[in-house]
Structures are given as C-alpha cells and as structure tokens.
Amino acid sequence: xxxxxxxxxxxxxxxxxxxxxxxxxxxxxxxxxxxxxxxxxxxxxxxxxxxxxxxxxxxxxxxxxxxxxxxxxxxxxxxxxxxxxxxxxxxxxxxxxxxxxxxxxxxxxxxxxxxxxxxxxxxxxxxxxxxxxxxxxxxxxxxxxxxxxxxxxxxxxxxxxxxxxxxxxxxxxxxxxxxxxxxxxxxxxxxxxxxxxx
Length: 198
Fold this sequence. Notes:
single chain, alpha+beta, 8-stranded antiparallel β-barrel, globular
C-alpha cells in the first residue's frame, strides 16, 4: 500500500468549515474512486491546520484514482469552497508501512489522542528506527517512487520515519541522533467525527 500523509495550513478560523465540507462531500466520493480515506485529524496546538491520511494499492492505482476524483463531479462542485479555506496544501509525505499493519485494531474508539512524530533520517538508516515500531499504532517510511500525479506535489528528496503512538505524552525514544538529519517534528492529533482511525 502507498500512503499519503497530508498536512494543510488553513486560513484562520476555517478548519471546522473544511472538515465539515470534507467529511460530507469528499470521503465517500474518494472511496468511490478507489481511494482509502483512512484518517482525519484536528491538532489542538495548531488550530489552523488539517491533517489527514489516504491510501492506495500501488502507484498506478494512485494515478488512476486521483485522476478520477479530481476530474469528478464532487471535486468540481466543491473545489472552490475547499480552496477558500486553504493557504498551503503541499506538506505531503508519500509513505509505505514499516513492520506493523497501520492502525490495526485501533478503530473502535479511544479517549486519548495520537502523537505523530516525523523523524528526518539519514539515508539507509530506517532499519535502525524499526525498534520504534514496538507499541506504535502505525509506522511508515518514505516511498521514493516518482510522483506520477503532478498536479499534487509531494515532499521529495528527503528520508523520514513516521510513527503514530497513542497518548499525549511523547514516548521514550532511544538515542538515535547520529541517524537524524534534523530534529523530529511532533504533532498531537485528535480524530475527527468520520475518521476511520479513532
């Protein structure tokens, strides 16, 4: 599976407007185009952001499904309203899962949020981070395939290890500084009403 982790910067005060529009008009219609809309999140520490995840069987399917969706009736009807909430939509990581099946067994609902950590890693060092999968809800690494759907940019030329854990506190991390190219990014995420991941 190929995953997109998408983090949008929004115009102040528009996040709930976008989430309501997204969950009413864009979840089912993406699914109909063959896209698995896996999770949508609010970040209470960054109220003008929207984070979400979608998945595809492979890169060819991704191209077909994105083409179908973005030329389809739902996007044509509501794109202008969606774009009116957005400042930047290019913070997108193309990922593949590492070790644990992503979010397996966590869909039944829980009170605690998710902590997302994005580790920028030295090329070839992802295996060193595999031990972080223990106890994680999901782990991913960069998918280096060429972005075949040019209208939607993704972050290129970087290597990351991405981990989702449950709870507000950052879990302990072994000493991995020698394998990092910069400081990890930490985000606190609460699932939205229609998020599959709860």
